[in-house]
Amino acid sequence: MRQAGRYLPEFRETRAAQDFFSTCRSPEACCELTLQPLRRFPLDAAIIFSDILVVPQALGMEVTMVPGKGPSFPEPLREEQDLERLRDPEVVASELGYVFQAITLTRQRLAGRVPLIGFAGAPWTLMTYMVEGGGSSTMAQAKRWLYQRPQASHQLLRILTDALVPYLVGQVAAGAQALQLFESHAGHLGPQLFNKFALPYIRDVAKQVKARLREAGLAPVPMIIFAKDGHFALEELAQAGYEVVGLDWTVAPKKARECVGKTVTLQGNLDPCALYASEEEIGQLVKQMLDDFGPHRYIANLGHGLYPDMDPEHVGAFVDAVHKHSRLLRQN
C-alpha cells in the first residue's frame, strides 16, 4: 500500500524536480520511484508508481495536485450535460501509453525479482473526485447525484467502467502480473447505495477484463479488490470475480474469513498507524495478525497506505516481522 511515498527521503528527492502529474507521465521517473522501496526493503512485490486520477485526466478533465491539499479539479462535473465534455472512453487507453511504458520498463528492470502489480480506481471512487472536484469528508455532492440524478450517475459509472477495462487490460499487456482495483470511498455508501452504484461496476470490471485478456490471448492475472470501509459488503465482494479481497484495519480477520469463505484470498490489514509503535510492538502486532489470518490464502499487508511522516525503519520492521512469523507459521 503506497510503497513509494513521501516517507522515503529518496522519493522526496526524485519528486522535487517536477510536479506530481508530470512525474506520473515520465516512465523513467515512475520506474525509479517504483524500484526505490525494493532497494530498501525485501518486499515480495512491486506496485507501479501512478495515480488513480490519470483516468479522469484521460477522459479530458483537468486535474492538478495542490501541495498540502491533494487533487483538485478546477471544473468538476456539476450538471448532467457536463458528461458531454468527457472523451470517448475507448480512447482512454491510447491516452495512457505512458503508464504502459512505465510498466514495461519496470518489468525489464525488475528482471523477475518480484512480480509487478498494476492498479486503477473503481468507478464510484473516480466519480466522487470528478463530481466533488477533489477530496471530501462527506461526498455529499457525489451522493446528491446518486439520489437526484440516478440515470446520469449510471451513465457516468458506465463511461468509467468502459474506460477502465481497456486500461487494465493494457497494463497486463505491458507486463503487470496482478491488478488491484481501489474502491477507496466505499465507506461513504451504505449497503443499498453500494449494491446499486458500486458493486455492479466492480463486478463488471473483473468480468470484462478477464474476457478481454482471453480474447487477446493473454494469460489471466490475479485481481484484487480493495473497498475501504466496505466491511458491510465483504460477502458480495468475495463473489464479485476477484481472486483477492483487500481489507482495511477495521475488520476482524476471523470475521472476514467467515464472510468470504475458503476459496478467496484475503489481503491486509494492519492499521498503518501501528507503524508509529516501537519496532518490538510492531513485531507483536504482526504476529497477532498472522495468527488471526492463518497461513492459507492470505497476503500480509497494511490496511491502508503509509503516511508521509512514517519512519522507514519501522516499515522495514513490519516487512521483516511478516517474513519471520510467516516462516514460523508454515513450519508449524
Automatic annotation (TrEMBL):
Q: In which pathway does it act?
A: Porphyrin-containing compound metabolism; protoporphyrin-IX biosynthesis; coproporphyrinogen-III from 5-aminolevulinate: step 4/4
* Catalytic activity from the UniProt record: uroporphyrinogen I + 4 H(+) = coproporphyrinogen I + 4 CO2; uroporphyrinogen III + 4 H(+) = coproporphyrinogen III + 4 CO2
Question: Could you tell me the EC number(s) of this protein?
Answer: 4.1.1.37
Q: Which GO terms describe its biological process?
A: protoporphyrinogen IX biosynthetic process
Question: Where would one find the signal peptide in this protein?
Answer: none
Q: Which GO terms describe its molecular function?
A: uroporphyrinogen decarboxylase activity
Q: Which UniProt keywords apply?
A: Cytoplasm, Decarboxylase, Heme biosynthesis, Lyase, Porphyrin biosynthesis
User: Where is it localised?
Assistant: Cytoplasm, Cytosol
Which protein is depicted? Uroporphyrinogen decarboxylase
